[in-house]
Write a structure and sequence with these properties.
This protein has 16 helices and 21 strands. The chain has 2 domains: 175 residues, Dipeptide-binding Protein, Domain 1 (Dipeptide-binding Protein, domain 1), CATH 3.90.76.10; 214 residues, Dipeptide-binding Protein, domain 3. Strands 3, 10, 11, 12, 13, 14, 15, 18 and 19 form a 9-stranded mixed beta sheet that branches. The N terminus is likely disordered. By secondary structure, the chain is of the alpha+beta class.
Length: 545
């Protein structure tokens, strides 16, 4: 599909402002809406927008502005291999250098990226993508369909490269090939009603020859994508510096240099923003909002995200092997108070694995009520009275993550028959344990967050709760059956299966259901940028204020 009428950066800015307004009103969109629609969205709009403060030179060319931007997250990326991670802080860095076949605008709708068109192959379990011509990687080599096919296979097929932790993000995809330089053919295990929703969110494209010429460690220390920014320098655990890729297939970015740093302590990030040492900071704590808004440095921007925060409880170890005990943990906490007092209202209570904006959310299921008497009774009934439990939590990764963990453990510790404590963990080491293929290597009880930018409840539940999920802490045959039905049906039958899975998860309580996270950013007054519900901090959509 041709993209005439506006440049991509201008479109992203236009869509961003409209989407955030809708998001704050609670009206988040959902990709292809889960109805199996296979037609790419129309991105044409009237008018053009250069989106920048560049000036025309005498020969008519646009002089690109000098506009450096620094982004400070809570954690640094765990490496630079786009197929070897499962963390949003890493993904936020990757998205600037690497691109997928399809992308999403700020409202969640699918848009062309390296693919210009996509469709199902009638009568076959396969889909095809038509890719752009005259796109180059940062090393100057031309991108072809074979690179996209290789990238897909590198994720779904261990024999191609390694066991990618992202394989379930392309659930239902069995492989890919390139019949010619402009066509990617993807084979499916079955119907896969959400295949285009998956590709609109996942699968960064790498150059096959570049990957095959390097060791795994070398790939993790370098970058070679087709995106609007290319790697300038990488100091592990300290900084990533990217610069504008002036040969980008669409208009070059307005941001000239993009630096990523990190600070685990929210107070450090806030002080850096107020001292003009950084331009975008994540997870501004509620008590700091007025301080930033009343300063000359910048302001706070917030939006409901697609991230759910929860406490997983491993079903295979005591006391969490008891359904009664797991339910007791939910009744023991005052979730309404945590959202109001710990999060300052920047959150929403949950009672099932998916959020209201997601396909398959069950509107009949609400949060657990605060009932410490019932919690005490259920603990006694479970046979685990007197147990001591420890909650593992990251620090600085999510909005008020440590404070949430301390509140949860505090409420549970108030029960006369349970003792609860908190163990503060490095986010990277905790994630390493969670990504292991062996459930017995995972902590028995931990706080973690999961953002699902596809707006697909099936992907959330498959990854986190199915028996073979990448980060599962639970196994239940009835639950797996609901997900299997959802994976092989469409329309109302599929929605019903997902709603039944949500209801079962609520009743079985494999998690302590916590909150939908709000993304709360501090934004420098020199940067014009709007937050997205999918937590992508997209510098390509930034301009000088």
């Amino acid at each position: 599909m041709p993209q005439t009428g506006t440049n991509r950066r201008g479109f992203l800015k236009y869509a961003g402002g409209a989407a955030v307004t809708a998001s704050l009103a609670g009206c988040l969109g959902g990709g292809d809406d889960g109805d199996g629609t296979d037609t790419p969205a129309d991105t044409e709009m009237d008018g053009t927008e250069d989106g920048g403060d560049g000036t025309d030179t005498d020969d008519g060319d646009m002089e690109l502005p000098d506009f450096p931007v620094t982004v400070t997250q809570g954690n640094m990326p765990t490496g630079l291999d786009p197929h070897d991670h499962r963390e949003t802080p890493t993904d936020v860095v990757m998205l600037h250098a690497y691109e997928g076949l399809i992308t999403r605008d700020a409202a969640g709708a699918a848009q062309p990226a390296l693919a210009t068109d996509w469709s199902r192959i009638e009568g076959e379990q396969a889909v095809e993508f038509q890719v752009r011509e005259e796109v180059t990687f940062h090393n100057g080599d031309t991108f072809v369909a074979g690179d996209a096919a290789y990238s897909i296979n590198r994720i779904v097929d261990e024999e191609v490269g390694f066991a990618s932790p992202q394989s379930d993000q392309l659930a239902g995809v069995s492989g890919a090939s390139a019949p010619d330089d402009t066509t990617v053919r993807v084979t499916l295990d079955g119907l896969n009603p959400i295949v285009f929703s998956e590709f609109a969110t996942y699968c960064d494209i790498m150059q096959q020859s570049w990957v095959e010429d390097r060791s795994k460690s070398e790939i993790g220390q370098a970058m070679n994508g087709t995106g609007p920014f290319k790697l300038d320098s990488y100091t592990q655990d300290e900084s990533v510096v990217l610069t504008r890729y002036e040969e980008y297939w669409d208009d070059p970015a307005e941001v000239s240099e993009l630096t990523f740093t990190s600070a685990a302590e929210s107070s450090t990030r806030v002080n850096q923003l107020l001292q003009n040492e950084t331009d975008i900071i994540v997870n501004v704590p509620p008590q700091e909002v007025n301080r930033i808004n009343n300063s000359d440095a910048g302001s706070v921007a917030a939006a409901p995200s697609t991230r759910i925060i929860y406490n997983a409880m491993r079903y295979d170890v005591e006391p969490f092997s008891s359904k009664q005990f797991r339910q007791a943990m939910n009744y023991a906490i005052d979730l309404e108070s945590i959202v109001s007092n710990v999060l300052g209202g920047f959150g929403a209570q949950t009672g099932q694995p998916t959020l209201p904006e997601f396909v398959g959310h069950n509107d009949d299921i609400g949060p657990y009520s605060y009932d410490p008497d019932e919690a005490e009774r259920l603990v006694d009934e479970s046979g685990h009275a007197g147990v001591e439990i420890e909650l593992n939590t990251p620090v600085g990764r999510y909005l008020k993550d440590l404070e949430i963990a301390q509140a949860v453990a505090g409420y549970i510790d108030e029960l006369p028959n349970v003792t609860a404590t908190v163990n503060q963990r490095d986010f990277g080491s905790l994630v390493d344990e969670l990504l292991t293929g062996n459930i017995e290597d995972k902590p028995p009880w931990y706080l973690i967050g999961w953002g699902e930018a596809t707006f697909e409840g099936a992907l959330v539940m498959t990854a986190l709760l199915s028996s073979n999920g990448a980060l599962t802490s639970w196994s239940n045959e009835e639950f797996d059956s609901h997900l299997e039905t959802a994976g092989n049906t469409t329309g109302d039958e599929r929605l019903t299966a997902l709603e039944q899975a949500n209801a079962l998860a609520h009743d079985e309580a494999p998690w302590i259901f916590l909150n939908q996270q709000y993304s709360v950013y501090g934004v420098s007054g020199r940067v014009s940028w709007e937050p997205r519900s999918d937590e992508r901090i997209d510098a390509y959509a930034m301009s000088q204020a």
